[in-house]
Amino acid sequence: MTSIFGSQAFIGFVYLVASALFILALKWMNAPPTARRGILAGEIGMVLAIGGTILQLGVEGKLEHIAISYTWIFIALGIGTAIGIPLGMVQMTAVPQRTALSHAFGAFCVTLVGTAEFYLGQRTGIPAFKMSVLCCEVILGGLTVTGSLMAAGKLQEVLPQRPITFKGQNVFNLGMLAVAIGIAVYLVYNPGATHLYPVMVGIALIFGVMLVIPIGGADMPTVISLLNSYAGLSAAAMGFVLNNKLLIIAGALDGSSGFILSVIMSKAMNRSFTNVLFGAFGQVAPAAAGGQEARPVKSASPEEAAGILAAANRVVVVPGYGMAVAQAQHKVRELYDALTKRGIDVEFAIHPVAGRMPGHMNVLLAEADVPYDHLKEMDDINGDFPQVDVSLIIGANDVTNPAAKTDKSSPIYGMPVLDVERSHTVMVIKRSMNPGFAGIDNPLYYMDQTLMLFGDAKVFVSNIVKELGGH
Ligand code: NAP
Is 398 a catalytic residue? Predict the structure, then answer.
């Protein structure tokens, strides 16, 4: 290890490049045209970070000190890779729960490292600053492990999606957190109190469960990005404990970007953070679900829909979760081609929380090579709907629900929605009259200008394309 590759200066340089790549990755991932480059930059940054850390262990002689060889490290890397590759191959609609699982893994690792540092430190004593960041690390890490597992379970529907609440829940939860923080303060002054450490970690683990059970399935993606933020902060704290600058930088980036994303998502749903965390959203939804009294709707066939589209000058496509489920994006691209070939102006209205994760629709449409400049954000297109001949809604529901603007008793009241009902004709592709994620009826379907196109999104769009003479 005497070569330049084993020197501290070289490792410092590798860490610097990795940090720069992480920052660039976040910047590039912000816009569809550069998103792939952003992901590649993040991946290279992570490879450099892992490589630098492995070299550093050798340089610092830590390997001999704690009697661990490179063999064990490479075995662990092999196991991690073997788990990571299939995890990366899940369906796009399962990405939120997959992300929650990786937060749980990351936070578990942080908690284990903190615990190892605590017990190793018993021999030499742990200074107050190190002990305080170590406590932050394991409390945040511990609650993120169980909180993320709960969130993943709710999204995968292996756990009930409905909020579970009881009287005095918030006081109970905050009380638990206060006890954990109290123990942490005691440990800072008495780091030798090893019997209290597992109690603190145990409370953090239980707190994670208690934090997530009162939150409904619909709010899980917001909760996941908040847990992402906690995982980042705990990793930054671990950076202080291990004196690793790269971890501090990466953890801080993760912590702040997760927080910003949660704020953006809450805004898009017109919910405050306190409302997401303590509001038990979704509780009222099942009662209002369904629209049981069968009100009449008008429906149309693919031929009729194709005729209406062909006669239009301006069409706005509103994609939603159903397009993702049906994997209809490539057929939607064919429809776009068939209509533009006829000189019809086609745009896509993108609601910030359409689908099940931020940017869900952008990713799917980019995959099908729909030109980015035809994707319009909600705020940019909402004023144009009165001039739109046909709004074609493909598997979207909640994001078009006018009750969000008019019905104060609706659980989504206040959420900004696409003003599709102001266009001349509205056509809605979905399989049934079943509600969407919020579990509520959509008055749009009963309006005069609305035609329901019942069927699977991919099949229906494909049939329209055939009628228009495309393939
Ligand atoms: P949605 O309200 O969940 O509605 C999706 C619709 O797609 C359903 O009504 C369903 O009706 C239809 N559908 C399902 N499979 C289909 C298929 N194979 N073919 C055709 N239609 C199909 O979806 P959305 O309008 O995109 O709204 C997203 C919801 O998720 C919002 O409530 C939002 O707040 C919530 N959410 C999103 C995020 C995010 O980051 N994107 C985060 C948190 C919460 P049928 O069963 O009748 O077919």
Answer: yes
Is the CB of 353 within 6 Å of ligand 1?
A: yes
Q: Tokens representing 252?
A: 């801080």
Q: Which atom of ligand 1 is nearest to the CA of 357?
A: 40
102, 258 in Cβ contact below 8 A?
no
Q: Residue 388 region, left (φ>0) first, then alpha (ψ -120 to 50), else beta?
A: beta
Q: Which of the pair, 417 or 291, is modelled with greater confidence?
A: 417
- C-alpha span between 48 and 44 (Å, rounded): 6
Model-wide pTM > 0.85: no
**What crossing angle do the helices spanning 169-189 and 197-212 adopt, rounded to 10°?**
150
Residue range 129-153, pLDDT digits in tens: 999 999 999 999 999 999 999 999 9
User: To the nearest 5 percent, what fractions of the chain are helix, strand and coil?
Assistant: 65, 5, 30
Q: Is the pLDDT of residue 154 over 50?
A: yes
Strands (E), 304-455: 314-319, 345-350, 375-377, 390-394, 425-430, 450-454
Least confident of 196-205, 286-295, 328-337: 286-295
